[in-house]
Design goal:
Largest sheet: 4 strands, mixed
Number of domains: 1
GO molecular function, one term: transcription cis-regulatory region binding
Radius of gyration: 18 Å
Domain Transcriptional regulator LacI/GalR-like sensor: 18-122
Strand content: 5-15%
CATH topology: Rossmann fold
Pfam families: Peripla_BP_3
Organism: Vibrio aestuarianus
Protein name: Substrate-binding domain-containing protein
Length: 127
């Protein structure tokens, strides 16, 4: 389980992601990597890191989630988890059709596997 003091919510807000990143990095033992729940929120993280005069990934690595276009266009480019939207859509439609046909669903939990797209924001630190 993660240390709960390092798990903060930002309510899908760029501004809150910025504020929470400042809070994380002000901790007595700040993290050396931050995982954001979306690439959009990672941009708030980027802003806070720059505001503190820190550098990505030299001082802190950043990883986003959903691999939006901004991930490859940001500087440094953002490491992100790519989601299989097509598979997600297909599985959702299959479940919906099962419900429409009044058949029991075996499970409402649908599992899809994303792929980690490694970019500049999470490269190894120099030893």
């Amino acid at each position: 389980m993660p240390n709960e003091q390092y798990v903060l919510e930002a309510n899908w807000s760029l501004k809150e992601a910025h504020q929470q990143t400042l809070r994380l990095l002000a901790m007595p033992t700040p993290p050396d990597a931050i995982f954001c729940s979306s690439d959009y929120m990672a941009m708030g993280c980027y802003q806070a890191i720059a505001e503190l005069g820190l550098h990505i990934p030299q001082n802190v690595a950043v990883v986003g989630y959903d691999n939006q276009q901004i991930a490859s266009e940001s500087f440094p480019s953002l490491t992100s988890v790519d989601l299989p939207y097509s598979d997600m859509g297909k599985k959702s439609i299959e479940s919906l059709m099962t419900l429409i046909e009044k058949q029991p669903l075996l499970s409402m939990r649908l599992k899809v596997e994303g792929e980690l797209i490694i970019r500049q924001s999470s490269t190894k630190k120099a030893s």
